[in-house]
Amino acid sequence: MNAPGYFISFEGGEGVGKSTQARLLGDWLAGLTGREVVLTREPGGTALGEELRAAVMHGQDMGPRAEALIYAADRAHHVETVVRPTLERGGIVVTDRYLDSSVAYQSGGRDLPAHEVEHISLWAARGLRPDVTVLLDLEPGYAVQRRAAAEGKGGLDRLERAGLDFHTRVRNTFLERAAADPDRWVVIDAAASIEDIQAQVRVDVAVRLGLTPVVVEATGIEGPGSDPEEDAS
Question: Which residues does UniProt call coiled coil (predicted)?
Answer without folding.
Answer: none
